[in-house]
Amino acid sequence: MKINKPKHDVNPDLAKERLKCNFNIEEVTNIIDGGKDKTVQRKKIEDIALNNGASLDEVPEECLSIKERYENAVRKSCVYGNLVRNEMLEITGIENFESPVLRRTADAFFKDISPFMLHLGMFVPTLIGQCTPEQTAEWLPKALDMQIIGAYAQTELGHGTFIRGLETTATYNPEKEEFVLHSPTITSYKWWAGGLGKTANHCVVMAQLYTQGKCHGTHLFIVKIRDLDTHMPLPGITVGEIGPRMGFSSADNGFLRFDHFRIPRENMLMKHAKVEKDGVYVKSAKHGKLTYGTMVFIRVTLVSEMSFNISKAATIAIRYSAVRRQTELRPNEPEPQILDYPTQQHKLFICIATAHAFQLTSCWLWNTFQAVLADMKKGNVDTLPELHALSSCLKAVSTSDALSHIEQCRFACGGHGYMLSSNLPFIYSFVAATRTYEGDYTVLLLQTARFLVKASEQAEAGKKLTQTVSYLNRTANADRLNWDNTHEGIIKSFQVIAAGKIGQCVKSIRDRTASGMDYEDAWLMTTVQLVGAAEAHCRAVLLNTYWSEMRKITEASSADVKKVMHQLAVLYLMYWALEKTGDLLKYSSVSKKDLDELQRRYEELLAELRPNAVGLVDAFDLRDEILHSSLGSYDGRVYERLIEEAHKSPLNDEPVNQSFHKYTKPLMLGKL
Ligand SMILES: CC/C=C\C/C=C\C/C=C\CCCC(=O)SCCNC(=O)CCNC(=O)[C@H](O)C(C)(C)COP(=O)(O)OP(=O)(O)OC[C@H]1O[C@@H](n2cnc3c(N)ncnc32)[C@H](O)[C@@H]1OP(=O)(O)O
Ligand SMILES: Cc1cc2nc3c(=O)[nH]c(=O)nc-3n(C[C@H](O)[C@H](O)[C@H](O)COP(=O)(O)OP(=O)(O)OC[C@H]3O[C@@H](n4cnc5c(N)ncnc54)[C@H](O)[C@@H]3O)c2cc1C
Prior knowledge:
Belongs to the acyl-CoA oxidase family. The chain is α+β, with helices and mostly antiparallel strands.
């Protein structure tokens, strides 16, 4: 398999690394893609994107002004959107418009974010999940064909987390058969929605629904905010961009204020509840939170997105570490490649393992999500709470872990990792946002904790629990687990840690209520522990899922691939066991000797993986055009690229900057 056909000679150290690799790289790529046919499909889509010169920037996007950057991003988004519409969807099938490959290939066009990302990312999924069949027929074809461009406007200046606290109102007027949208306070300004500021002409709006004098809580509406021809905001709409941010610089995150803005009754998204012409409110949903469906969907997809982002950072840092040499080990010996340092391996190999752990877990989560959707189609919503608990904690932990691993990758690249041309700062700032958006880390873990506390009480009452918490049935009465230094033993110990922490939370809440606190205060006082318990549960799910899915997926693999995939999964188990030694000591009989043995095995495993490190990141098969990194390209021309990128800085356009004559020289001459 030709991965990237380098135009230049490959750096000799990197070339030697590739000779060391002892497994079939293509086989691992196929595993990551989900099959050989999927690899072929991905490559076809990438070819379409990359054979189009429009993805190239003459000036790096980070060197442009805010306006130029946005305009350039819109230009490229239109080209890319057109390719998706006319060529790529033919390959994936239109029903797979959410294929991660389409999202990822877009990275060939943008180091930062496309202003259109939220259109396909959230607007279209909301139409699919929240419309009646008639509404779907009206809106979806236009959205998929990009005749209308949409955003998802839920968060307000005053509230993001607490959706029930949103202030925008949608008041029904039966005489005119219209809703009147209004922003009654400054805190009710819609705030943050991606693509809303300048790009979108429509948006989905979450607002408090009033009809017949009664508030029925938050509901979704589709709202046209700009004229389709002139793109001017419609009367009653104030819309704009919220200002520079840590990342998402070309995503025109926006604000929106309604001044008694009228929309037809049919623009309420009515799949789960409707308002009749006469104003009667009718709820058809069997579960109170179905309007939150788009958020659940995105939380599910983010786990795979985190795998992708870690694999990008790991590829950059590992290729760079094979090229970079630093510090004599012994006098007069050549400086070693920094990849030879076990401390460097400790920073980086866990990133490769985590990318696999998240990818396999995300496929399993996606299948769970599809099964729940199928249940809901039949009118059964019983499986939704478990999906909500699972998607909440996996979103929280995967985004948080991805962020810290990506930061480690930057540390691993020393000073050069701080350069925007390395792409690590872009990857980091993108992932930093994911920890917050679509539900903040703490808030989502507390949602999972709610589910776990209930599950623990059910286990106590002898009830049989659902799959992801069934370990509580087995471990509810276990005090301390007998340590068993096997892979299954490590997984079981994480389940016992989770069960122990959940049990301790239940006890703390009970003790507090028994001493006179009301339940809400007892819960609040216990939230630090509850977040820890939900994280522990999530770790148990991740370890168990990664291990069992890895074994399944490599059943038919070659012996060498089986071996290296197995080594990565073991590394993941050991890494987390060593990270959580305090918990292991508390909840199992593990001894200092056992932990020393685990540490020794972990260090040996780093050394065993070392020859395959470059092969393993090559297997992610990230083309240079998608990686955008001076440090991580396939040919390893790190220093040449750093110099080429330096020359692109606008400050190097002329030998002397005018500020010298205007300010510095007068200062030097005492004439200022
Ligand atoms: C491919 C991916 C790549 C890119 C993706 C594309 C674009 C990405 C770019 C940017 C996207 C950014 C978009 C956004 O950020 S949109 C805004 C997202 N906002 C949030 O996520 C807000 C977070 N807050 C909440 O979700 C909720 O308010 C809450 C914290 C969950 C609390 O809700 P509330 O109504 O107050 O409910 P509670 O009273 O706490 O709970 C009652 C009951 O309901 C259950 N519940 C809550 N949520 C759900 C749900 N979604 N599904 C099912 N059940 C739910 C909850 O557990 C509780 O159950 P009980 O049985 O315990 O009563
Ligand atoms: C880059 C980016 C893009 C975004 N895109 C969109 C978009 O397209 N559409 C959209 O609608 N929104 C969007 N958002 C908004 C995003 O969804 C919210 O910012 C997010 O849900 C967090 O809400 P918040 O900002 O209100 O934080 P807050 O809830 O104010 O959180 C602040 C702190 O308070 C803590 N906290 C809050 N509530 C609790 C609680 N109950 N218990 C314990 N701690 C708590 C949190 O843990 C956090 O530490 C985007 C945000 C970002 C950063």
